[in-house]
User: Fold 2,3-bisphosphoglycerate-dependent phosphoglycerate mutase from Roseibium album.
Amino acid sequence: MERLLVLVRHGQSEWNLKNLFTGWKDPGLTEQGVTEAHKAGQQLRDLKLTFDIAFTSVLSRAQRTLDIMLEELGQTGLETLKDQALNERDYGDLTGMNKDQAREEFGEEQVHIWRRSYDVPPPGGESLKMTAERVLPYYKSEILPRVLEGKRTLVSAHGNSLRSLIMELENLSPEEILKRELGTGTPIVYRIDENGGVLSVQDLAD
Ligand SMILES: O=C(O)[C@@H](CO)OP(=O)(O)O
Assistant:
């Protein structure tokens, strides 16, 4: 039985372009983001992949990316579960702040710690560890059971919600996941074994 799980980070958003901390804010995709979403869908189509179910967050950049990919796949209207458990990590007080300005105000090192440490949350926000503590229970209760029963599954979500999931899937240490940057609109294709372990991973970044 095929057990397929594809993860995609949303295409470039208006706030990615403006270099702002985004978190739970809900900017739309840029034109480039729309193009990236079409390309992601085309890449999946070229691999002849189709899906039985999709998951996304409650944020429009991930939902729109999913809709565009489904259009490319000829699968609009696919059963889709939307849940805030898959939202981007909450950036707390940094939300809406320019990342370069934050570096000037708080220093390069502090901003790097807030962005890429495993368990230091930004003020009022979530660390990657806290993000994992909501993403992984949702993955285990809603997503993985479907994958294990053979439903080909597409997940459209966010840089940090997906990093917390990839850390678990690929068994990465906090140090390893911190170095892992996910490109916007880049599908990662996993084949999963009967116990939920990863048989193979294919990153479609070019
Ligand atoms: O701003 C954000 O919400 C995220 C993802 O774009 O940024 P970072 O790469 O700093 O975690």
Summary: Residues 16, 21-23, 88, 91, 115, 159-160 surround 2-phosphoglyceric acid (CB under 6 Å).
